[in-house]
Amino acid sequence: MIVWINGAFGAGKSSTARELVDLIPNSTLYDPELIGGGLSLLLPQKRLAEVDDFQDLGIWRRLVVDTAAALLAEVGGVLVVPMTLLRQEYRDEIFGALAARRVEVRHVVLTPGETILRHRIDTRNEHPGDPDAEDRARRWCHAHIEPYRAAFGAWLRDDAYAVDNSELTPAEAARAVADALDAGFAAPCDIVQTPEPTGETVAAGVLLFDEQDRFLLVDPTYKPGWEFPGGVVEPGEPPARAGMREVAEEIGLELGAVPRLLLVDWERPQPPGYGGLRLLFDGGLLPAAEADRLLLPGAELRAWRFVTEQEAADLLPPIRYHRLRWALRARERGTVLNLEAGTPVD
């Protein structure tokens, strides 16, 4: 199990985490910030200069998960993880990958009042003897208060159990977290456990359209970016029927007819992924009355919306967006397209 302690920079996550390991039997402190420090020594400076925060490095997010899994395999028990996560897509990627490894996550957020938070930032002394480093750290913390407030209002307060540590010492805050864990208030994150593939896969997605010819996208809880309704084709299952099954499971809609194939795209293996075949089908018109009755499984999907092709560019990861564009062209032409790594082939 992992107890993930979130909150603004300077909220007291690390000091609370150090106290918490003394309260939870067989627990280990795991600070992913050490991975960022290691990457600063391993990656070329050119790559490091491309990001403002090591969390923006895909390798950091992968190593956070892989290291957690390796630590649990080595020492077992509970990992206490003090780390700010403000981008929901990074939460989805990390927590989803942990769920795929059957690692339970309890998500807690420390919420000191802003005046107290700023005072703590201004009086902290994490770099004794290095005033320039201390100044940089304080400016970083102050600059990220507003992003924290935005994240808390948008999604964090609904995802994590909040502990107001405004008037608490680190030991008292740790006790509040431990009590919440014991009482079940800080419950395991409700997230689908999608097994990691061990080889190439076949996946089927379905495009469903409204009266304005917009198409439906869903927002998974377990991976970053929006997606088409659909999923992995099970052994021995026809791909179109797999798409129909996934639509029924994900949004509670039973398609009356087998959807028409729009494209087949071969996705290149790119470690740690194995790639495989990706199929997109035309599920036809979804009347407004039926759309109003869509049901989302909370552990798997948090939202749905109809979007235009232009709007999808800001929601879909690039590989899915390119696939979508060609699927829409195939629908317009009444044909089926064969793609390799997102590019049509004759």
In words, what does this structure look like?
The radius of gyration is 23 Å and the shape is elongated. It is of the alpha/beta class and 346 residues long. Strand 12 and strand 13 form a beta hairpin. It starts with a strand and ends with a strand. Helices cover 41% and strands 21% of the residues. Helix 1 crosses helix 9. The model has no long low-confidence stretch (mean pLDDT 94). The protein contains 13 helices and 13 strands. It has helices at 13-20, 33-42, 45-48, 58-75, 88-100, 114-123, 131-143, 145-159, 170-183, 239-251, 288-291, 309-312, 318-333, and strands at 2-7, 27-29, 78-82, 105-110, 161-163, 201-209, 215-220, 230-232, 260-267, 276-285, 301-307, 337-340, 343-344. The chain has a 6-stranded mixed sheet, sandwiched between helices. Strands 2-3-1-4-5 form a 5-stranded parallel sheet, sandwiched between helices. The longest helix is centred in the N-terminal third of the chain and has 18 residues, at 58-75.
